[in-house]
Design goal:
homodimer; alpha+beta; six-stranded mixed β-sheet; 6 strands; about 40% strand
């Protein structure tokens, strides 16, 4: 597969993540996350969850009330064969910055890491570090 | 190198990141980040920066007033040869959840991705997604 095709496939995987999230589709979420790699996930306001069991449990809870979330500005960075997709999440009038990391597994990109955190409104931004 | 040694080295690289941060040591920060891979960085409250130039510029700005930051709970997850280190940052009475990702380069772990976001105080946590 060409690098351009890999990048497009990573953006499609990222799209599938947000589709599963808004549609409350737990089966799709289970399918999307890597079945073989170690996975981690850091939800906004929370510390990092480790391992598929803890991560999937968190999504099952979240998908009980699927968030009305859109995403934009998706950009893929390939690092040593992993796809790091950054994007902006739009949720309830607020913005979050998300990084979604995928590995190539069984013929498609599958998620191994998700982290999202709030973006301060323009004009009020203060960089802590 | 054994996997245990790789994990220890990743924790040491993570320690060096926070040492560079608190000591305002830009040379160490330049050395710590990968010189060859694409890099990304998502500071708290901000959207994602792409590329070594933008990322290093942000650290140069931050290191003008080095934050008094401690970290704890560091945990390494190896994913396809990359080290994902999660930890909790302690800053000004608040907590942040951080993910620091490293690749093996020139005989040591070097950073390719940093993201940190605030952790809500216990009791007030509300998972957005």
């Amino acid at each position: 597969m060409s690098e351009a095709a890999e990048l497009r496939a990573a953006l499609r995987a990222n799209d599938r993540f947000y589709a599963a999230l808004t549609e409350g589709d737990m089966a799709a979420m289970e399918e999307l996350w890597s079945a073989t790699a170690s996975v981690i996930c850091t939800h906004p306001g929370s510390t990092t969850l480790h391992g598929r069991s803890a991560v999937m449990e968190s999504w099952a809870q979240i998908l009980q009330s699927p968030p009305d979330i859109r995403h934009s500005d998706a950009q893929v960075t390939l690092i040593r064969g992993l796809a790091f997709v950054s994007c902006v999440e739009h949720l309830g009038g607020g913005l979050l910055a998300a990084t979604n990391v995928f590995v190539w597994e069984d013929g498609d990109w599958r998620m191994v890491d998700h982290q999202a955190g709030g973006v301060a409104p323009a004009g009020s931004r203060e960089t802590l570090h």
